Amino acid sequence: MNRNSNRTAGWLALVAVVMVSLSFAAVPFYRWFCQQTGFGGTTLVAEAAPDAPLDRMITVRFDANVEAGMPWHFKPEVTTMQLRIGETGLAFFDAYNPTDRVVAGQASYNVTPDAAGGYFSKIECFCFTEQVLQPGQSIKMPVTFFVDPAIVDNREGNLVNEITLSYTFHEIPLPQTQAALVVTPAAPVN
Hints:
Blueprint: H1 2-37, E1 44-45, E2 57-66, E3 73-76, E4 80-84, E5 89-96, E6 103-112, H2 114-117, E7 120-125, E8 131-133, E9 138-147, E10 162-172, H3 176-179
Parallel strand pairs: 1-7, 2-10
Antiparallel strand pairs: 2-4, 3-5, 5-9, 6-8, 6-10, 7-9
């Protein structure tokens, strides 16, 4: 009986380890899946815009948010932009760290409506890398993008006249190279 109990406990422990491992793997796998397919409004990454934009215009709205507890001020320089489908757009977002400490952040993004996600392609984006702001520092961050002309060939995509690109900045731990540069005040000597 004791041998069977040990075997059962071993199997249960193995199942628990596998389940925990899968739960940690689910987030990066889902992010990868969304980036590859444009599922859930996730945008695609491109090397360059198409050679010939269409005559049809589309409006792109820009939205900026910070996660609760993230001390930065973050906003788009313009809230809307009109461009031709297939034309390269360039927008800037401003971030400011009003604190007295170094703060690192990573932007997550989403595109709505969902039908546009697979056709909204970024060539360059601040969201591809971590951002580190020193106390009182302001930065201007670019995003270069285009709407793929193939959107007009999609039944749902063809109905899209307005796309919203939304960013949310999340505070993250300082990268090791930055964390090493942060000087902590010396303890007072008695």
